[in-house]
Structure formats: C-alpha cells, structure tokens
C-alpha cells in the first residue's frame, strides 16, 4: 500500500452517462418481449434516479418481487466505452466489485490461437460493457442489469512472448520484478501469459463478465489463478469521499489524477515520434523506446500484488499508534502535521519534544513521490477477504494494482524504499505478484493487442 492510492470517489463529472440507443432492443431479452427493452430501461434511469429512501429500502428488503418493472438506477446505467486511446479500467473510477484472472496458453497454442482469443475477448468485452449479452452461450446472469460501469482490461505477461514467438517485441520494462524482503510469494498465484482485470458496480455484472471471459478461452488457454475483490459502493456515503481499506485507513489521498499536467507522461507509454532516431541512446530520442516498442503506445504497465493484512496484529494497536505507522489521522486522513486530508504533509514539523510529528518510518512519508525521485503510480486496488483459517485468522487484505509508464521508475524504486524501513511492513505480507504489459485501447474495428499480434 502507499499514499498514492485508490482513485477518489466518483463525482457527477467523473461518471459516464447512460448508453445511447434507447429504442434498440435485444430480441432474446425477456424484458424486451414484455414490452420494455433493456436499452429503454437504461434510458429511463437518469430521469428516475434512486427510487428508495431509507424507509423504502428497509421495506423493500423483506418484500417479495413484484411483476412491475422497476427502472434501473443511475448506478446500473453508467457505461464505460470499450474503444478509445487507452484501455478502460485504468483511469475509470474504481468500481465496487473486481475480479483478476490470469491465463496460460494451452500446450501447443501459439500466436494464431492467441490472436483468435484476443479477438473473441475484445468482442465479448465490447458487448458486455455496452450492456448487451455475450454473443455465444450467454448465461443470463446479468440479463436484468445495465452496464454498471463494467470494464474489462487485457494484458500480456513476460512468458506470453516466448509462447507466441514474439520475443523480439517483448518490452524491456516487462523484465521480472526484483525480489523484495517482504515477499512470501506463491508462484502458482503469480504471473501468467495473459491477464484480465474486470470491474463493475454490480457483483452479478462482474461475475457475468468473468464467466464469459473464461468460457471464451475455450481450448486456447486455461486459468492460472483468479482473485476476487471489492470496494465501497458508490453512494454508500453521504457525500463523495476517499474510500477506506480493511485497516480502516483512508486510502487514496495522493493518487495522481488525469487533470495533472504530467499524468500521461507518468502513466502511459507515449506514442512513437517518427522524427526520433532509431538509436534509443541517441540525444533527443523519444521516451517510447525506453518504455516499450511501438505496439505499446498509449498503453501502461500493471503491477499486481496480493498483499495480506495481518489484521489481528494491526487491530491490537491503539489508534494513535496506527496513525504513527501510516502518518495520517485515522478519522479523516489528514496528515499528522495538521490540516485536512488534502493538506500538504509537513515532513519537517516537530512537536514540543523536538521529535518529528510524522515519524521517519511512516508509510505516507516513505511513499511520497518527492521522496522517491518523482516516482508515481495510479493505484486502483480492491480489498479482498477469502475467509478464515483454522485458528480464525482472516485471510484478508489488498489486491494491489498500480499503473505506470515504466515499473522500473514507478513501482520498483518505491517498493525498494519500503523494504528498507516502512513501519507498515510488519503488518502486511506480499503473497502473490505479477507484471503485465497492457497495450493501448482498441480503435473501432480493432481488437486489443492487434498491433502486437499482427504487426
């Protein structure tokens, strides 16, 4: 975890409106046959809004389903576009439900099979993100729901390039991550040829996408590992605010924002400058050569870490001790040096005893970009809870996902510094890891990864 964290809660300006085409309908949709199409339900959502207040919610909980159609809320009608300069699920506001799944290509499968698979996956993602059923074998799990901010994001692991004969196109930035002292990694739940990130604001919509992606893999690829996560649901608080993690800490205050002047430079691989010399070390060379080959233009690199929180140990600490570990107040996320959540942390401020108010090993101090040569990442994690062991110890923590133009200048230097003295390290354990090259978005008529697989 770090002080550069989960994107802030949605505001009306950050959300996508309902999809268009309200008069179109799917002939296989039962709601359409009953006289109102799923698309028309979406079209009424914005005008209807939330239909239950506090009393209505309580009454509705125990009531039996009625035959009358209830319009979708704005939550269900929000749609994220599949096609674009960047893949969805990177700058998209973090959703309340997430699935991460890695695949390995099947024995004998290569570039041809991978190409066909990415075509299928891209078509399925495009349809589901628009609130449409999957083309084949749709399970009807999400039949009654809108798009619910669904995003499906695809990436390639280090091993993918050897399996497909594309070693010459493997980015240097995809070299395996170094070992860290906090690692207790399970290799079976790490890495993989292909990686898919799914996020949605409805659990059934998210599962529907997960199942469709897994079915699409067919005989070309098999699941290597899969993880499930969650976040606070939009609208769960009285006003938009930064979410909390399972330690109860406000988590996400200093995440880079798309409005920042240097956001794209830090997070996305730039497009190739045709006037740049071919020598990557020559003066004036475009940074694209350092971050990846041309097919990675407008893409990003995702680091995934399953970080278990040792909650029994953490929860024994008094609140003040927890705040010293993080460097921020637990109540509102403000720095211990004073102010509000967004106040700049004063790293030099001392108390009456002459000691630093923000401890030297506080997590928020160590992870600040200005303490790490400007290293910055966009983090879109999900919390997870996978039950309790025989002693009642929770298997819970953070599915850490961070995005950067180059992990060697983003995640790696920050994690190395955390290794050397982060107060939080005794309360967490890194149990799985992965690094994936996530290409730019697919244009209309393209599939994700086409410039790599057909280049």
UniProtKB/TrEMBL annotation:
Protein name: Deferrochelatase
Cofactor section: heme b
Domain Dyp-type peroxidase C-terminal: residue ranges: 242-442
A Pfam entry, by short name: Dyp_perox_C
Localization annotation: Cell envelope
InterPro entries registered for this protein in UniProt: Dimeric_a/b-barrel (IPR011008), Dyp_perox_C (IPR048328), Dyp_perox_N (IPR048327), Dyp_peroxidase (IPR006314), EfeB/EfeN (IPR006313), TAT_signal (IPR006311)
Ranges of residues in domain Dyp-type peroxidase N-terminal: 87-231
Segments for region (Disordered): 1-32, 270-293, 327-346
Organism: Streptomyces marokkonensis
Bias (Basic and acidic residues): 23-32, 272-281
Co-factor: note: Binds 1 heme b (iron(II)-protoporphyrin IX) group non-covalently per subunit.
Gene: efeB
Major subcellular location class: other
Higher taxonomy: Bacteria, Bacillati, Actinomycetota, Actinomycetes, Kitasatosporales
EC number: 1.11.1.-
UniProt entry tagged with the keyword Hydrolase: no
Similarity-based family: Belongs to the DyP-type peroxidase family.
Function noted in UniProt: Involved in the recovery of exogenous heme iron. Extracts iron from heme while preserving the protoporphyrin ring intact.
Catalytic activity entry: heme b + 2 H(+) = protoporphyrin IX + Fe(2+)
Keywords: Heme, Iron, Lyase, Metal-binding, Oxidoreductase, Peroxidase, Signal
């Amino acid at each position: 975890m770090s002080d550069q964290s989960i994107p802030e809660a949605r505001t009306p300006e950050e959300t996508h409106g309902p999809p268009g085409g309200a008069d179109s309908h799917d002939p296989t949709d039962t709601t359409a046959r009953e006289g109102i199409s799923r698309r028309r339900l979406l079209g009424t959502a914005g005008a209807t809004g939330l239909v239950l207040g506090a009393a209505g919610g309580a009454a509705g909980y125990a009531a039996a389903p009625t035959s009358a159609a209830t319009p979708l809320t704005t939550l269900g009608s929000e749609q994220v576009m599949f096609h674009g300069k960047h893949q969805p699920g990177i700058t998209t506001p973090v959703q309340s439900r997430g699935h991460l799944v890695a695949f390995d290509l099947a024995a004998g499968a290569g570039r041809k099979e991978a190409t066909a698979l990415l075509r299928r996956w891209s078509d399925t993602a495009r349809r589901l993100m628009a609130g449409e059923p999957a083309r084949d074998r749709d399970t009807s799990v999400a039949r009654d729901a809108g798009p619910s901010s669904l995003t499906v994001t695809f990436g390639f692991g280090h091993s993918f390039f050897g399996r497909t004969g594309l070693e010459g196109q493997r980015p240097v930035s995809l070299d395996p991550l170094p070992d860290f002292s906090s690692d207790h990694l399970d290799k079976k739940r790490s890495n993989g040829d292909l990686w898919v990130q799914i996020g949605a604001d409805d659990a059934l919509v998210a599962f529907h996408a997960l199942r469709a992606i897994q079915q699409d893999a067919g005989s070309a690829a098999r699941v290597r590992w899969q993880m499930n996560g969650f976040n606070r649901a939009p609208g769960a608080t009285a006003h938009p605010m930064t979410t909390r993690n399972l330690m109860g800490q406000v988590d996400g205050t200093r995440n880079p924002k798309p409005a920042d002047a240097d956001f794209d430079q830090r997070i996305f691989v730039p497009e190739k400058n045709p006037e740049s010399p071919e020598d990557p070390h020559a003066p004036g060379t475009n940074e694209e050569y350092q971050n990846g080959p041309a097919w990675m233009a407008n893409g990003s690199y995702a680091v995934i870490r399953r970080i278990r929180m040792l909650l029994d140990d953490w929860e024994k600490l008094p609140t003040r001790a927890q705040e010293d570990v993080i460097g921020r107040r637990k109540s509102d996320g403000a720095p211990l040096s004073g102010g509000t959540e967004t106040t700049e942390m004063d790293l030099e401020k001392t108390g009456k005893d002459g000691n630093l108010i923000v401890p030297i090993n506080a997590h928020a101090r160590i992870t600040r970009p200005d303490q790490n040569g400007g290293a910055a990442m966009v983090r879109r994690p999900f919390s997870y809870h996978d039950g309790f062991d025989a002693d009642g110890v929770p298997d819970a923590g953070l599915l850490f996902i961070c995005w950067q133009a180059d992990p060697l200048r983003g995640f790696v230097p920050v994690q190395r510094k955390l290794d050397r003295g982060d107060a939080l390290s005794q309360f967490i354990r890194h149990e799985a890891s992965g690094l994936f090259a996530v290409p730019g978005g697919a244009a209309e008529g393209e599939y994700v990864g086409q410039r790599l697989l057909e280049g």
